């Protein structure tokens, strides 16, 4: 469970440069995080 919280925090931090996208930025950042 702590791994998933860490992943969510990492996605949140890495999605800061996508703020212009609104709420969808988390989905885009999560997909990019998983594919990387």
How would you describe the overall organization of this protein?
The structure is a single chain. By secondary structure, this protein is an all-alpha fold. It has one domain (2-35). Helix content is 69%, strand content 0%. It has 2 helices and no strands. The protein has helices spanning 2-14, 24-35. The model has no long low-confidence stretch (mean pLDDT 91).
Whole-number radius of gyration? 10 Å
The tally of strands reads: 0
Into which percent range does the helicity of residues fall?
Answer: 55-70%
Note the gap between the termini: 21 Å
The parts where pLDDT drops under 50 for at least 5 residues are: none
Output the structural class.
mainly alpha
Annotate the secondary structure layout.
Elements: H1 2-14, H2 24-35
Give keywords.
2 helices; mainly alpha; globular; 36 residues
Quick take:
This protein has helices at residues 2-14, 24-35.
């Amino acid at each position: 469970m702590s791994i998933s919280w860490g992943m969510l925090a990492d996605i949140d931090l890495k999605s800061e440069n996508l703020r212009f996208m609104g709420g969808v930025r988390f989905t885009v950042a999560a997909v990019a995080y998983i594919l990387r």
